[in-house]
Amino acid sequence: MTSVPDRSKLAWFFGTVALLGLGVLVATRLVAGDQSSLRTLGVILFFLVLCAEFNPVEFHRLGLRLSFAAPYVACTALLFGPFWAMGFDMVSNLLTSRVLLGGKLRGAPMRWAFLNILLAGICALLATIVARRVVDIGPEAFESAFILTYCVVNFAGVVTVESFYAGRLRMDQVARVAPAATMGALLYVVVGIVVGTLIRVQGYALIPLTMIPIWLGRLGVQYRARMDDVYYETIAALSSMLQHAHPYTHGHLDRVATYAETVALRLGLGSARARKVREAAVLHDIGKIAVDEEILDKPSKLNDEEMNHVRRHSEFGAQILEPAAAFRKIAPWIRHHHERPDGAGYPDRLAGNDIPIESRIIAVVDAFDAMVGDGPSERRPYRTPKTQEEALVELERCQNTQFDAAVVEAFVAVVREEKA
Q1: Quick one: which of 9, 117, 344, 360 could link to 404 by a disulfide (CB 3.0–4.6 Å)?
Q2: CATH superfamily membership of 246-419
Q3: Each residue of 245-281: b (16+ CB within 10 Å) or e?
Q4: 338 Cα distance to chain centroid
């Protein structure tokens, strides 16, 4: 099997070739109309595209791969036409998809590599067609129009393909990807305007130097992506720690998180807020690591002292998370997920709308899953499991006292739609 070179090494190789080409370009004293020099510039642009493609920023949690090749593809379209731009973009995607270098895109099916290459060609062609309508305004307008069109078509294409394979459009996924895509598009436009200005003043030899702001921008975006990865890795680590300590929470946390996000969306909280509800739901029982295991695993009914100790887990959870700035927003939701609309909950005896809606959502979903469970290993030692229908009836019986009525209504609808 052919070994695949490291992407960063390939990027350095392509960057070195581009810089050598720059030396040739300067040596030939590039002037307008010098076809030999323009061909040299074309070679440099191709290697700049490759350099950008081999150094993307990857948002692992979002499944998004953000490269910074668009300004150079736009420059190629302006100087050499749409088909050269399509060729540069498709060939660079072919190489970075490792069709030639290993046959796989990081283990993904070959169809994704093919679709990625095809989408690159379509984006370059459509962007050139649109940008040509404003080319008379100036190279800057061409570059900006090309890049914006390219980004919109690319984003729409990715969303369409993913929705097709998922069987439905996930607006929450779209909302999570949109900020990163917008950030990349803005950087593209800024660099595109600079490249367009250099073309207008025939400063072609300076075009490769625009890799500097792109590289600096890439570092900023990469830092943001890494912080997102660390955030979710921390959530996963905390969740795993709790599951190892208390095996019955293993599937419970995942189910509560999924239902909580779905109910939040149904209640109109918005995708970003619903995602936060999901994160809080994953960690809602993290305080149980501070509770005596013998009490939690006790097969018989707890006495008052033991019950009061267990009830402090929501306080413990908030205390564990509050020192970390990343979790400060969701800590109050975890603290109050056992409050009740009638004020008889804990730890602060909040009532009605004083309880965060996020906490009310987690309370309903948590109670349902605790009543139902998913198997012997996940059932609470002190509680006989109910059927789903029995649990739903219990939730409806306790609405306005133990549970928020609007949340119960939304959750019951979600569960019954799943069963239908």
Answers
A1: 360
A2: Hypothetical protein af1432 (1.10.3210.10)
A3: ebebbbbbbbbbbebbbbbbbbbebebebbbbbbbbb
A4: 30
Do residues 295 and 310 lie in contact, with contact meaning Cβ atoms separated by under 8 Å? yes
- H/E element holding 336? none
pLDDT exceeds 50 at position 63: yes
The model's pLDDT over 260-319, given as tens digits with 9 standing for 90+, comes to: 999 998 998 887 788 899 989 988 888 888 887 777 777 777 888 888 888 898 999 899
- For helices 211-245 and 35-53, the axis angle rounded to 10 degrees is 10
Token output for 125 = 């062609």
pLDDT in tens, 341-362: 999 999 999 999 999 999 999 9
| Angle ∠(182,187,192) on CA atoms, nearest 5 | 120
Nearest Cα residue to 125 out of 177, 167, 77, 92: 77
pLDDT at 35 over 70: no
| Interatomic CA distance for residues 116 and 205, integer angstroms | 31
pTM over 0.90: no
SS3 annotation, 23-88: HHHHHCCCCCCCHHHHHHHHHHHHHHHHHHHCCCEEECCCCEEECCCHHHHHHHHHHHCHHHHHHH
For residue 90, what are its two tokens? Answer: 């498709």
Residues 6+ apart with CB under 8 A from 39: none
Domain extent listing, the chain:
7-228, 246-419
- Rounded Cα distance between 311 and 338, Å, is 8
